[in-house]
Task: inverse folding
């Protein structure tokens, strides 16, 4: 027997959240569900959903700072990604929404019968593994810092180094720890980062050039020169790839 459908609401407008709660109360007469909570922006939603395993997120699209489409991409990275039902006043995002494997795309004002039908589809899929399509590229990486979710803009990241199961994300003024695999980030952000060593990805925009250096044993090797002058070792294996790709540097 499945548990009640756990639902979370995300909308920057309080009246819209109130209407959704009312509609959910009406839907509860036909469907076993519970409302876990709500958030008025993507940042608050991402933090809350790290701790509450929702089955479904009713998600607005046009919100300040981080819109619903980008939030949906981050939610796909959770260990238990929720199903998404978009609720919006705009119809031009439908293609992008379904590329993110949305259950449904409901136009405001949301009607009870449409919401109920979408939730019933979600209930049918409940417990099944989700075969999520490749999402459009994210603009942020989400890390947990002192129990809170922090979003690191990709264009602020200089390089990333892996050690054991953790990745150190280095920006111009701070470092962050992320649990994960460097290979996965390399595949997702291939247009932004390049591998210079088996344990290091560098933002291509940070590369100023390459120069030869000598290690402690007196052996010559190549170094990647980053702006404003940091140097990172390049492996022999990667040097052959980098040399051809960055001949202009």
Result:
């Amino acid at each position: 027997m499945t548990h009640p459908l756990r639902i979370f609401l995300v909308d920057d407008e309080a009246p819209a959240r109130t209407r959704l709660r009312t509609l959910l109360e009406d839907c509860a007469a036909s469907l076993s569900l519970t409302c876990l909570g709500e958030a008025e922006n993507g940042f608050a939603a991402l933090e809350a959903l790290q701790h509450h395993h929702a089955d479904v997120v009713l998600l607005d699209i046009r919100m300040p700072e981080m819109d619903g489409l980008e939030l949906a991409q981050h939610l796909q990275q959770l260990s238990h990604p929720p199903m998404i039902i978009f609720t919006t006043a705009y119809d031009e995002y439908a293609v992008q929404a379904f590329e993110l494997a949305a259950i449904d795309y409901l136009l405001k004002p949301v009607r009870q019968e449409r919401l109920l039908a979408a939730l019933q589809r979600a209930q049918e899929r409940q417990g099944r593994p989700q075969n999520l399509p490749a999402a459009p590229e994210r603009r942020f990486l989400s890390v947990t810092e002192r129990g809170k979710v922090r979003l690191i803009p990709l264009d602020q990241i200089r390089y990333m180094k892996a050690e054991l199961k953790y990745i150190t994300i280095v920006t111009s003024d701070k470092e962050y720890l992320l649990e994960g695999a460097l290979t996965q980030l390399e595949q997702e952000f291939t247009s932004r980062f390049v591998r210079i060593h088996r344990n290091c990805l560098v933002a291509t925009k940070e590369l100023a050039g390459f120069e030869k250096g000598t290690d402690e044993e007196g052996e010559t090797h190549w170094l990647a020169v980053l702006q404003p002058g940091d140097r990172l070792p390049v492996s022999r294996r990667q040097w052959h790839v980098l040399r051809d790709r960055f001949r202009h540097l």
